[in-house]
Description:
six-stranded parallel beta sheet; single chain; 5 helices; 42% helix
Amino acid sequence: MTIKDKTCCFTGHRNISQDQIHILTKKVTATIQMLAEQGIVYYGAGGALGFDTISAMAVLKLQQTIPKIKLILVLPCLSQAQRWSKKDQEIYESIKAQANKVVYTSQDYTRDCMFKRNRHLVDYSGTCICYLAKSQGGTAYTVDYAKRKGLKIINLAD
């Protein structure tokens, strides 16, 4: 089993309704548990609001019972959370502090830094857990890229 085979990335929408958050948290947690049993150890998240945050927090919580799993944050730039609410920034900083590894794909915000981050997540993974509920936008692009790269796709919106 290669490192890529042991690595899973997350991609999903930023805006998730309050009633969906609880359901998605349960689905993500169960999926990570299943994948960990299959030997997947590394979980890459992009640090965005919404699905990325839910997924990263699920990995961190599961580390208490499955200590071998690792959270790798792949962030698009140093200023990603700059314009977020204070509460969201605090959650982001907490996740960053607890992550096993933090990688920045760009120092500064650029037009393509999010795409660069998304491609990095996919390029180093063998599996992709996504929350894809609409066919356009960054999540759709990333899932399509993951399919072209031959990743196993698990869509929690299905």
